[in-house]
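Q: What structure does this chain adopt?
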Amino acid sequence: MKKTLLLLCCLFSLVSISFSQDIQLTQFYASPLYLNPAFTGSSGCTRLSFAYRNQWTGVSKAYSTSLFSIDHALQKNNIAIGLIAGEDQAGTGNLKTTVVTPSFAYQLNLSRTNALRFGLQTGAVMKKLNFNNLLFGDQLLRSEKGGGDVTTIETFPHTKTYLDINAGLLLNLNKTWIGVSASHINRPNESFYYNPTSNIPIKYSAHIGSNILLNKDEKYAPAQKFIAPIIHYKHQQKFDQLDVGFYYTQSVLNIGLWYRGIPVLKSYKSGYSNNDALSLIIGIATRKFNIGYSYDITISNLSQNTKGSHEISMSYQFCPQKKKKPNPRVVYCPKF
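A:
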């Protein structure tokens, strides 16, 4: 029995150390630099963005994410710079992932309203794990009552830092945008050990959206109504995810509805349906300030335990005061 417990603890420790997930956001367009580095400077202004996500509130110590970004467009040179700083915490071992990634983008103007943007991110990622909160096999074997009430004799590295490289392309066609990006291009080793290694698979992302005016005859801006249908697809190793939905905008009010999953196209194992969540979004968007809230309703087999996910996003834009009209090559995208 003790040998079995020891084996289970060792396997659990290896899984906890070797694998982690990328940051998951429902309001992914509220953190455009994280979605695709080519979005750096896409607003034509200096932009501050913040997102906080509490995933699976029914699970003890699940995922908690904070993400901050800033970007600025140097329009005279068609280049833009930015920075992402974020922190993600998960699990009993308080696995903490800290990201600090500078971002750079260049815009190639194709016409008055069309442009192609190139983006690159190269930064540092640090992972930290609190092994004091974990229970190991030697503690069970040496404990008088088998409860692990002794200190482990195992030694572990507590931090891991590595270089991470991401890149992306973004095609802006008036009020329609098409983007592709690749994350972890250098396939960094995120394992706390040098042997065996755990190289992160490249994550590929494709996204397309459009901003459609519903009442074209309406000239009064606050009375105009818009709908923005969006598709976002991600692929990493054998895993796939599809987000499909829309935002509806009237005056300063924004509402959105999303579905996440690929139930028909792919199932990983027999008996496993690829359904994840339905997301409801509501927010307020002005010319400079935006705030949004979303709630994920879990529709997979985990629905009875996870109790959904909450997410809040905010952004603020510092735009030139004397600008007569908007930049015709600004990427039109949802505010959150």
